[in-house]
Amino acid sequence: DGTRDQAGLRAMAAELGLEPAFADRLLALLIDARVVDDAATDPAALARLSLSERDRLAPDLASISLLSTGADGGLATLELRRRAKVAVLGAGRVGGSVAALLAAAGVGHVVVDDDGLCAAADCAPGGAAIGDIGASRAAVGAAVVQRASASTQPGPLDPAARPDLVVLAPREAAQPQMGDQLLRDGTPHLCVAVRE
After folding, report:
1. For 82-125, how does the pLDDT look when each residue is reduced to its tens digit (9 = 90+)?
2. HSE (CB half, 13 Å, CA atoms) of 1?
3. Which member of 26, 56, 59, 113 has the lowest number of beta carbons within 10 Å of its beta carbon?
4. What separation in angstroms does the CA of 180 have from each of 39, 111, 183, 184, 196?
């Protein structure tokens, strides 16, 4: 329950008439099974978030903690997400939804780049709404990001900053040259599309 360190567990085992080595073996088994979170982990990553953002990200943190190999309860992974900068190129139905999901997952900065105007075909449950028709898709994408997470920055990156990931989500069929410059620059990127 986070109230005892290893020495405290050994002392409690002795009080219960168990050998301290038994407590050590049990603790080692639990650590190997990745079901122990270190109560001494620095929670600074959470302290920078509002209470509502911490509550919103609690299910993500719980899932991360089950997959994490560390004993920090997934906080290091959450902090990596918080520091990540992702550019989404294309704010149609797919791009807008991807931007919203990235923000909801705790990504710290999501830039949506699209110079077109929102059309009815761009509307989706996680993205643009019917009321957004006619507005700039980039502005709608930024609003979608803010609706998904108050702690995610939606605006352009600092000119000196590079995105950690670029998501190519063109409304039309992806052109091979879209990723050429990203490949040359060594920028990780992912092309997403929906086909029926």
Report:
1. 999 999 999 999 999 999 999 999 999 999 999 999 999 999 99
2. 1
3. 59
4. 46, 20, 5, 6, 26
